[in-house]
Amino acid sequence: MCGAPKQGGSLAGIDLSTQTVIQGSVWHDGAPVAGAYVRLLDGTDEFTAEVVTSPEGEFRFFAAPGTWKLRALAPAGKGQRVLDAEVGLNETTVVLD
Amino acid sequence: MSRNDVLVNVDWVQEHLGQPGIVFVEVDEDASAYDGGHIEGAVKLDWKKDLQDPLRRDYLDKTAFEALLSSKGVSNDDTVVLYGGNNNWFAAYAYWYFKIYGHRDVKLMDGGRKKWELDGRPLSKDAVERPATQYQASEPDLSIRAFRDEVVASIGSKNLVDVRSPDEFSGKILAPAHLPQEQSQRAGHVPTAINIPWSKAANEDGTFKSDEELAKLYAEQGFDDSRPTIAYCRIGERSSHTWFVLRELLGKTDVKNYDGSWVEYGSLVGVPIEK
Fold first, then answer.
1. What ipTM did this prediction achieve?
2. The pLDDT of residue A1 is above 60
3. A3–B176 CB contact, under 8 Å
4. B116 is catalytic
5. Which residue, A3, A49, A83, B57, has fewest beta-carbon neighbours within 10 Å?
């Protein structure tokens, strides 16, 4: 599989003692944005993965500990956020300008 | 072969909807994308359920491919225009696959679903039925497909282009980061491979970069035009994207896609790995 699994929802079945999960939602004008394209970029700004947000505006990545950049792209605008992730659950929000 | 023969833009697609002799085909791994709305009249190919052998790890044999295209209503004379999600990874894989079986006129829609959606173009939920055909495939063209023994024999002599992300190339992660990182194979890359991520060939909206930008990219990354080339990734779809760029857009000769890719190579006993 290389296509993204369903975004958001339960963390059941995900081993948070080994996985570095980066998840959150995309917001614009006080509401979550469904169908936004969210990219995970590594420390050199290189593309690592991309998913499309769920109807609730959620995204999820399985990364590794370190610094990552999230970039969101939707017809409503663009947004980005940098975060330092650790093993376990890392939650964040990306707001579109 | 030039860009205009193998690539159409979203405007062209919108202008040619419903035109006889053109079949639009959405190729996704996540088939729910198509079901939630697709380009009007487009038929669906599910990368896994339709395009992979249900038992062995391989693509469909000639007879099964003929049956699939016949059932989807694709004729040998049709112009097939492929598009899909994941920045056209799976559509590019299908393009390579249609070429393996000798389809005469196949093109990609530049930017795929993403570009179409970002532009706010119309999507349809109407069921698409096309009358069945009698599709005839050619014998597989293996000049564009690499197998594991050839990859091992190519270390140090051919361009081995690893198109995964730098973190997958270095072995920091084992799969694209939208997937759980639990895999059985070893991490790393084929010795002497150069890492030119597929994403460097695409703009943020999923469209391909210009021929000039692409030519510069590969030249700068150490691609040797005098050598044959094998592209690989994890399961062979991102490398189809790069195969498309190298062979179909830049016109390089002797370019193969290794669809076994890292899932196979990283599981082989005794082969050399670099990290």
1. 0.82
2. no
3. no
4. no
5. B57
